[in-house]
UniProtKB/TrEMBL annotation:
SUPFAM superfamilies in the cross-refs: FAD/NAD(P)-binding domain, HI0933 insert domain-like
Cofactor: FAD
Xref: InterPro entries: BaiN-like (IPR004792), BaiN-like_dom_sf (IPR023166), FAD/NAD-bd_sf (IPR036188), RsdA/BaiN/AoA(So)-like_dom (IPR055178), RsdA/BaiN/AoA(So)_Rossmann (IPR057661)
Protein name per Swiss-Prot or TrEMBL: Aminoacetone oxidase family FAD-binding enzyme
Residues covered by the RsdA/BaiN/AoA(So)-like insert domain: 205-372
Length: 432
């Protein structure tokens, strides 16, 4: 089904205006219209759902297959508030909505615990969302950038657009996204608007973004991938005291880039680094176990290895890629040594580089490559049952503008569907 984009908004003020036509905004529009309200989506770019189109390498991982809220989502707000929002709509009910109501056939990717559209087409996801909305009478106006909101004497709201025009509504849903992927039209306008109207904003930062840093031994390992890396992040204070407590990456794939590191394991933890870099707080320590094997396993291999074998050949034999094995050995100063020649201190140093390698970083790739934005409006400033602002009556917030994001794997889409549903449904009810 191809989407139908309307070029203008009716002169009669709609009941609900949705500012932003991304995943959360379109979901809000659908559920507001389902309540019988007149709904208009104001989208600043030339078409809705542009970020949906590029998601998952244009395959669009729409949902995870399982969710642990504490493990899979990051917020500086109250964990109980976050759990209350997720209690409103189960993963199974959300999946059923996508399949039965939106008409999107889903397929599983069992090894990664993800749901994708069976067509592997992000365009189908976008088009079916738009089609479902327009079938309910939702009007979509593109190239309509909301630059300001102002309250009306009767309790409604006025949207001031970038072209100087205005639209009025009884209630508003702010679904303007964050700052990630600025080429998609995201620049933090929503944060600026609601912040100017009285909301506090947790300082924002790029999340799920690659890190910049030096490769082992200063080698250039760009393009090298590993699939069993155990990556760990410890707060600076804990690391200084030798404590193991910290965050563990949920995924194990790791990629050396031209300027540093990426891959699911890095993206799982990069928010801790970017937050500290952006806010000037103590930097956490990242440590990599390159193959996920224990120190005891490596010690046993070293003992069993013939003394005449070279150190690099031992590492390659047990699965370390050649370029990385050579870099590790060079950094340890054992590139041309045989196992029988290693002193105890050299074995200990080599074991540390294999199982607790300190990953150096000096920056990140920023919003241009960030999957999402960290920080935003605290959950304490919205009613978690309705997503209505506690500061601005009849203004509902959803999606990336809130102080919540999930790790990669469909979790951020689930957050968009979940909060968009609450915001749209209750924006319509608040009008009534």
């Amino acid at each position: 089904m191809r989407p139908r984009f309307l070029s203008s908004v009716s002169k009669a003020a709609p009941s609900v205006i949705i500012t932003g036509g991304g995943a959360a905004g379109l979901t809000a529009a659908y559920f507001a219209a389902l309540q019988g309200s007149q709904v208009t989506v104001l989208e600043r770019t030339r078409e809705p759902g542009k970020k949906v189109l590029i998601s998952g390498g244009a395959r669009c991982n729409v949902l995870p297959m399982e969710v642990d809220v504490q493990r899979d989502f990051v917020t500086e707000s109250s964990p109980s508030a976050l759990r209350a929002i997720f209690a409103s709509w189960s993963l199974e009910d959300c999946k059923r909505w996508l399949e039965d109501d939106i008409g999107l056939a889903l397929a599983t990717e069992e090894e990664n615990m993800k749901y994708f559209p069976a067509s592997n087409s992000s365009r189908e996801v976008r088009d079916r969302l738009v089609g479902a909305c327009t079938n309910l009478g939702v009007r979509i106006q593109c190239k309509a950038s909301v630059e300001a909101l102002s309250s009306l004497p009767g309790g409604g709201w006025r949207c001031s657009l970038g072209d100087g025009s205005h639209c009025e509504a009884d209630s508003i849903v702010v679904a303007t996204g964050g700052l990630s992927f600025p080429k998609m039209g995201t620049d933090g306008t929503g944060h600026r608007i609601v912040g100017g109207l009285g909301h506090s904003i947790k300082p924002v930062y790029p999340a799920l973004t690659p890190l910049k840093g030096r490769h082992p031994a200063g080698s250039q390992l760009a393009g090298l991938s590993l699939y069993g890396v155990d990556l760990h992040c410890a707060a600076a204070a804990a690391a200084a005291k030798g404590k193991k407590k910290g965050q563990q990456a949920q995924r194990s794939a790791f990629l050396f880039t031209h300027r540093g590191y990426s891959g699911p394991s890095v993206l799982d933890l990069s928010h801790s680094v970017t937050m500290a870099l952006e806010r000037g707080t103590p930097l956490p320590r990242l440590k990599a176990n390159w193959l996920g094997d224990s120190r005891a396993e490596w010690e046993a291999r070293m003992v069993a290895c013939p003394g005449s074998s070279s150190v690099p050949s031992l590492l390659r034999k047990h699965g370390l890629p050649q370029r990385l094995a050579e870099a590790i050995c060079a950094e340890a100063g054992v590139s041309d040594r045989r196992m029988a020649e290693l002193r105890k201190t050299e074995r200990v140093a080599l074991l540390e580089k294999l199982t607790e390698y300190p990953l150096e970083y000096d920056g990140h790739e920023g919003y241009a490559k960030a999957e999402v934005t960290g920080g935003g409006v605290p959950l304490s400033e919205v009613d978690c049952r309705t997503m209505e602002s506690r500061v601005l009556p009849r203004v509902h917030l959803c999606g990336e503008i809130l102080d919540v994001f999930g790790r990669i794997g469909g979790f951020n889409f689930y957050w968009a569907w979940l909060t968009g549903r609450l915001a749209g449904m209750h924006a319509a009810q608040s009008v009534e």
